[in-house]
Amino acid sequence: MKDKALTGAGGVFHVASVFSMRGMIALPTIRNTAGYDIIATSRDGTRHANVQVKTSAARPDFWPVCQTITAVKTSQNDFYVLLRRTPDSETFEGFMLTGEEMKTELEGYVAHCKATGQQFDKFALCIGIEDEQKAERWRKRWQTWTLEENPAQKAAMNP
Asked: Residue 68: inside a domain, yes or no?
């Protein structure tokens, strides 16, 4: 069995590496910093993003995110990256959501649990990627996102 802490750390450093390759300064926070795993800034320091990374060594269709909806960060600078191993187990497949999208998805999860009588309050709230249209939008955002402002990125953020 793989160590979950090492898998999580690997995901954080993977995201930081990708951001660095895209021209951003990506600073992983110290272990267990509440709310954020990476602070990313533009090279000139005028733009930044706070990023929470959720990593799985398997290929899940859902990720545990947090204990309560109020824990979800939703400013315009807050993002969540979901990573899972690819079938070849050498790389990650990624999905990127805004904080607002994450909050909306988790609210939907809570509503679904309540409507179906499933217990959710003793476990972490989870996000799924069963909706292929959303999954594709989040996948594309992960593949192209930077802190640089451009019309194509704005369109991807607000479809």
From this structure: no
Mean pLDDT, the chain, whole residue set:
87
- Give the CATH number for residue 36: 3.40.1350
Name the domain count of the chain.
1
Q: Which of 19 and 88 is assigned the larger pLDDT?
A: 19
38 domain-assigned: yes
Sort 115 into a burial class: Cβ within 10 Å, 0-12 / 13-18 / 19+.
Answer: exposed
Cα four-point dihedral sign 103, 140, 85, 19: negative
pTM given for the model: 0.88
Cα separation, 113 vs 126, whole angstroms: 11
Q: What is the mean pLDDT of residues 111-126?
A: 83
Q: For residue 158, what are the contacts with CB-CB under 8 A and spacing of at least 6?
A: none
